[in-house]
Amino acid sequence: MAKHTFNDENFEAEVLQSNTPVLVDFFASWCGPCQKMAPLVDELSEEMAERVKIGKLNVEEAQMSAGNFQVLSIPTFILFKGGQPVARTEGGQSKEALQSFIEENL
After folding, report:
1. Per residue in 67-106, pLDDT tens?
2. Is 15 helix (H, G, I), strand (E, B) or coil?
3. Residues contacting residue 5 through CB under 8 Å, at least 6 positions apart
4. Residue 16: domain span
5. Distance CA 55, CA 68 (A)
6. In the annotation, is 34 catalytic?
7. Which of the residues 22, 23, 24, 31 is marked catalytic?
8. What CATH number is given to the structural domain containing 25?
9. What's the rounded mean pLDDT across residues 56-69?
10. Does the annotation mark 65 as catalytic?
11. Kind plus residue range of the DSSP H or E element containing 78
12. Which of 15, 34, 40, 66 is catalytic?
């Protein structure tokens, strides 16, 4: 299970005001590709914990946050630095591809 869970109530404090970069996995429980990505996201959350905070946001429970960043398809991954979205990628992918995306944008 993800170490960090984001929602409309904690998004500003946990993501936008974070001193470290934050990767948000926008997902829904019924989404097949999201379910396939979940264990990979959890592994990267552990492996990259010293460099980036990685967590999940359920788009059905946090519609305001998802809408604020125009998340129209899931899974969507957005990397935030200094309170700003700096990079995004969408869809299911390999762990290596997601890790490369994170590292290239840190």
Report:
1. 999 999 999 999 999 999 999 999 999 999 999 999 999 9
2. helix
3. 55, 56, 57
4. 4-105
5. 17
6. yes
7. 31
8. 3.40.30.10
9. 97
10. no
11. strand 76-81
12. 34
- Cβ neighbours of residue 57 under 8 Å, at least 6 residues apart? 5, 6, 7, 11, 24, 25, 26, 27, 65, 66
Tally the domains of the chain. 1
Give the sign of the dihedral formed by CA 45, CA 79, CA 57, CA 30.
negative
Q: How much is the pLDDT for 3?
A: 78
pLDDT category of residue 2 using cuts at 50, 70 and 90: low
Whole-model pTM? Answer: 0.96
Any idea what DSSP says for residue 18?
-
| Helix locations, 16-69, DSSP H | 32-47, 63-68
27 alpha carbon, distance to own chain's centre = 8
What's the full length of the chain, in residues?
106
- Joined together, the tokens standing for residue 94 give 């390999």
Identify any residues that bridge with 22 across adjacent strands, giving them in sequence order: 53, 80
